[in-house]
Sequence to fold (770 residues):
Amino acid sequence: MSAGGVSSPALSVQGLHCSLGDKPVLRGLDLQVFPGEILGILGPNGAGKSTLLRCLAGLIPFEGQVEVFGQPLTSQAQRGLPPREIALRVALMHQDTALTSSFPAADVVMMGRYPHQGRFRPESAADRRAVAQAMAFTATEALALQPLDQMSGGERQRVLFAKVLAQQTPVLLLDEPSASLDLSHQQQTFRYAQTLAAEGKTIVAAVHDLRLAARYCTRVVLLAEGRVLAQGTPSEVFTPGNLEAAYGVQVRVYVNPATGQFDFHLRGTDPGLTAPRIHVIGGGGAASAVLRELAEGDFQVSTGVLSPGDSDLYVAGVYDLVSVVSPPFSPLSDTAHADNCRLVREADLVIVGNLVVGAQNLRNLEAAAEARELVLLEDQPMALRDFTGGPGLAAYQKLRSRAVVLPTAGLAAWLTNRNLSQKA
Amino acid sequence: MNTPRLAWWILLPLTLALLGLVLVATAIGSVSVPLGDTAGVILARLGFPAGWLPPPDQKWDAIIFLVRLPRVLGAVVIGAALAVAGTVMQGLLRNPLADPGLIGVSSGAGFGAVLSIALGVAATSAWALPVFASLGSLTAAGIIFVLAIRAGKMGLFTLILAGIAVSTFFGAGTSLVLTFASHDSIAQFLFWSMGNLYNVRWESLGLVILPIGTGVFALLWFTRDLNVLLLGEEEAQAVGVDVFRTRLILLVLVSAVTASAVCISGPISFVGLIVPHILRLLLGPDHRLLVPAAALGGAAFLVICDLVARMALGAQEINVGIVTALVGAPYFLFLLLRSVRRGGTL
Fold:
């Protein structure tokens, strides 16, 4: 955080209240934003993200204190900076509105120069330079003569971004800047923001996408019901507890080991103790997809026996599943096996993934024999997956005689038909 | 895109065309005056040294300078005023069918006019009716503004609804006065309400040239604001337009300009609707070009319509308001039907 106390805040908000019509939207919000920051504003629909940005741009009346570089904005109580003075300090890019205009892009971008222009002066060289720069930065030069209402949503978004840049303000407010953009332009927009922040500008962006926010924002603020629920770095704020409090759903948060980026998984409500119990026997990644699917469904899921480093175990960890673990590269320990057997006995259904059988995990098949109801997921015949030289295949054939055999891809449909939850 | 430079290529020929049109319209009439003599009279009166052109026949001086020229220039001034006011209203309300009538100027002028006729003031002085009409205009517009302003804001929707209500009210007032008026008064009002340029003399031109001239000139300084306002209220405010103040200034200027025009000619319909609309189709949305073009185009349109009004039926003149309405109403209907066909609402 650049809130080192050395620089003074670009934006300072205290006790901000704002109502749209009779509906209170912001209810006592405090916030400080410093130059060089990319502050992400997150929160569910209706949390007040857009309203906050509109207050910061002085577009709607509010109560409380909003200061831009130490100067108060207009509020209901007192007359602060006039619109032109605000527009010299703060530029707002609205959420992808139905804003259409038959003006060509170059004219629209030039409108961003309005606060710099005198009423009795024609466009200056500085105006034209700022427009050219902004259009070069957003790669919209080719669209210069094209009317705004004859562009794709993404092109229009970039032109409006150029207009905001042409305003040359130290503070930029971006409301869902990437909402209507494709993947590459989404990234591009936030890279622009990074470049601008590196130049010392202050960026505040309302962001819907938690992943984009986690990747590009130096600091995030989580809003819920018009108040700040949490603020800090993405890793401080994006905890399952905060996200559940804000969005009302259970969210699993983990850092993608390959990209180092945050990933979020929705989980419905907690299945509860009456939900059907399913035990999954996997290993070597054979059960990852199955575990994900079951964990996001309405089941109590357990798995075993797995070894540390197994990607199945990683998935189980993300979803916080009951897992039996045994050290790698050695036969399953007796305690692990006993735990596994207990979970198998307690489960309403046991699923054996399309796993490879070796000497060390042979006992997993042994445990599966105690299942009340058994599903074998078979994408390749066991003969190709047995590395025990016989005993594995034999044990598997024994299980197969009393089990339902499905391809992994067929499990979801089978589960729906089977309707386990009704039994519970 | 360099609109200002491009603008000269459109505005300069338009200006020259208008000057030519003024000359022709002044020359044509119940008695046609040769163009050379017409130009000669005008130039001589403007103080150009003699000898440029063959000296004009002095018998034309009175008809050209005292009768026709003020009337044609009246058409120029009023046409420009109405078209500029219409352009600004359409831009301000972001609706191609808006016109200054929406802010009550026509109904207010009508009420003022009928009052001055019925009370007999109009008979006492040539200035009475114009002054009453413009006072009525400004009163109606003022009431509408006050009604539309709420908590430092002026909602356009409220403005339109207040405009309808106040216009209806003033219209009813006019009808009420007419109910008790003499037949002569009714005939006089009816004649006024059809819009005409019969009585435009240098004196009446002198009365309105200043308010219309300053109003139109002032509106030219707000064309950039109008462009930005087209993007929407919040977009405009976000780049620093004081939306409330700008709207109020523009509406006050529009009502002053329209009230001045209406006061010497009576209400002339459709000039403020058709001219801006055609120009917008031809020139695009940029008000920096549209507003001056509307001044020239509106002037030319009304000069032509007045020429038709004078000449169409031979000796019998018709009111210019009838001509503009005969041209305007079908065009308005065409716009309406096209808008409906495109699935738009009005």
Remarks:
- The longest helix of chain B spans residues 61-93.
